Every structure is written in structure tokens, then in C-alpha cells.
């Protein structure tokens, strides 16, 4: 084997060992050798190198299988931190997490959807606040992830954010300069799918659809556990799937798009106009008082969501659908109306099995997803010994 090949094998071994420590901690060197199939001296030398670089640490002693009780190894989740920012149409959420995605600080601000300077200012300000709360650590801030409801191409350059045309490329280079860390950009629904896969409570997600319903509707599609992006990275724009060929013209150029019916903006617009309170607060108050019109609106919301989901279930045959919407999360009964619509529009034989779950991460799903992307890239660079 030549030197380049040897270096590559070492890197792959190191990556494999670190991955297994993260997945199985606390774990002994002997157990790692058993899991990875690598011999004990390889495990031992790679573990020493990881210990030296503070990304893992030794903790207590585990069960003995005869002989001395082995020293156990753990991933040092506090070796560095990540920031994830979700810029919605009318809100921004910023989370500071450790390297296992545990939220250390979380900030959220409601924003006027047309006020671009205020959104950009909030992004800078909340990220600044998060960095101030970051505990001391070996690697400090490892990166910043930002997601937006828009088209993000495979090179992670924003292409189109119709609801929120912020100057994200300028923001990206500004943040990179200010904090001297990489900044990653992702589509909000894709980020949510990653967040659910890594940190959600829906179990192992192999063939799953993350449906994000806010001002618009976006899908994050997981196929064989991986994000399906399409050739340019623009997959999942199901909000612009037509459900009425003669329906009203949409800003995307199509007619009768799903999100013209089933988005929050479409269904709850009467409640957006006559009050200054946030939509969720208004809706919650009315529903809590048993307001008949509001309960009917919920039913309608579920109906329109179901009409689109039938098409998605038929097209992609997902095992799991994860629904991310603050109103549905507050009123899970809406799911009944979604399911009722799906069954009423499918012959029993034509409808495949599917699980419909409400997002367990709720409003933080996408910010946690981009935070995970930061951590994943940090660990890749770490293995490449770029530190
Ligand atoms: Zn459209």
C-alpha cells in the first residue's frame, strides 16, 4: 500500500471509531475492536489520537468480562458548539447546541414578513447573543447553519426566496468574517427532515416525508435515510403542486397550487388581518373558547392538507410523514380531519400504509437540522485533521 492509501485508511479507521463511540458510548476499546472489526492496536492508537484532540474522553470503568474492568470512552459533546438559525417568513429562531444537538440556548422573534432589514438585523443580533452564551470549550464555535423557506441549490447558494427576499449571500459572508467559521445554507424543509432524522422521536427514518406548513408548504424527502435533493437541489416544492388546474394564479406561475389552499396564510388569513396578536395566540384563544367558526376552520385546514397528502402518499409511498405546523401541534385533532380526508379519497386497496406523526421537535426542527449539518461538517473536517 502506498503512503496516500495508508493515510486514507487511517482516516477511514478514525472516522469509523469516532462514529462508533458516538453511537455506542460509553464503550470500551475492546468493544470498539469487536464492533469495527479493527485490531486492538489500531483501535488503541486511533483512540489515543482522539483523546489527545479532546473530542472523546475516558470515563469510569465498565463491566468486566473477566479480568480488569475496562476504561470506558465517551464522545466529548462539549468540545465545541454549533448555531442553527431558521429564518421563516414572519419569525426567526436561533439555537445554540452542543455537538450532540442538545439546545443550550434558544431565541425566537416574531417579525414583520415584509421588513427585510429587521430580519437581517435579528439574524446578526440573535447569533451574537447565542455566541455570548457559549461555554468555554476546546473548539469553540464550529460553524453556523442558516435555513430559509426558498430554493437553495446544490452549491448552497440561495436561488429564490419569494416570501422573504433577504440578502443571504451577504449575510453569509458577513457571518463568516465576523466569527471566522463556515456558514452553511439549507432549505428550511430539508433542514427539518434532517433535524427529525437526527433528533426527532419518530424512530429510524428511512423513507420519510417532512411536511413543513408555514406561510407556504415545503417537503423534505428522505429516501433510504438520505435527503433527496433532485439534480439542482430544488426537490420538495410540493406547495406548488396544482390541486385545481383552473384555480387562481400562483406567484410560481402555476394555477391552483396546494399552498394557495392549505398553507397557514391561506386558511387563517381572516385571523391575520384584524388583530396585532400573533396568529397562534389569536387562534388558540378562539379555539379554547369553543369558537365554532374556528373549529370549522381547523376542519378545513385538515381537509386541504389531506387533499395534497393523498397525492404525495401515492407518488412516494412513504413509511412516515412528519407534519410540522404550530397550529397542528397545538391542536392534534386536526390530524383526524387530515386522515379522514386521505381515507375518503382513497379506495382501501389503493391506499398504502403510512404513519402520520406530528413533529416532535416542533418549531426547532429546522434550526436543529442546520445545527446538525454544522456538526457533521465539523466532524468531517476534524477527521481530515484540518484543526
Ligand atoms: Zn405555485
From TrEMBL:
A GO BP entry: D-xylose metabolic process
Transmembrane segments: none
Keyword Membrane attached: no
Function as written in the Swiss-Prot or TrEMBL entry: Transcriptional repressor of xylose-utilizing enzymes.
Protein's organism: Bacillus glycinifermentans
Pfam families cross-referenced by the UniProt entry: HTH_24, ROK
Assigned protein family: Belongs to the ROK (NagC/XylR) family.
Protein name: ROK family transcriptional regulator
Record InterPro entries: ATPase_NBD, ROK, ROK_cs, WH-like_DNA-bd_sf, WH_DNA-bd_sf
Key words of the record: Carbohydrate metabolism, Xylose metabolism
